Amino acid sequence: MENPKIKIIERAADLFLKLGFKSITMDDIATDMGISKKTIYKYFENKELLIEATTQMVQEQIKLAMEAIFSQNHNPVCENFEIREMFKGLFQSAHTSPLYQLRKHYPEIYHKVMAFQLEECSGFIRHNIVKGIEQGYYREDIPVEHIVKFYYALIFSINENTILEKDALVLELSALEYHTRAIATDKGIAELEKHLHLNN
Fold this sequence. Notes:
Blueprint: H1 4-19, H2 26-33, H3 37-43, H4 47-70, H5 76-90, H6 98-105, H7 107-135, H8 144-161, H9 165-183, H10 186-198
Helix pairs in contact: 1-4, 4-5, 4-7, 5-7, 5-9, 6-7, 6-8, 7-8, 8-9
């Protein structure tokens, strides 16, 4: 039998992503689940604690999904596009960018999320760049740590400052192309062009 607390977190996450962290109330979640609000408060004293639990769950899902993609041994350019597709699938129901919402309405939770993302995503970017250099897709002369910071800052600036998730997705594809062209060898550019063609 599924843990009631986990069930509340999962359903709340769906509602928050689809309709917004600010607009969804504890009453909305209780009504949607067919339970009393008192049942939710049994596990979460307030909405902020529930939001924090849902963001932690989503972060863990992202981490596991990225690890699964790494294990498939794609080339580094393909790997970046696979990661992009993973994020699209995870946030396909979101109307407003989740990071934008958190930054605007729940800054304390936003800062906790960003601390986690800084470590996880910087590690992924670094892994991808090093692999790309080793496999000949990225140039050997690039300053790896600088590139990690540049790309991380670019992606998260888009998500923090773009209201609509659909607009963020368009900008993220442009950022991925911009990033790859800046560091790729001819081999990497050829692989990039292939994936851009598939995404148009």
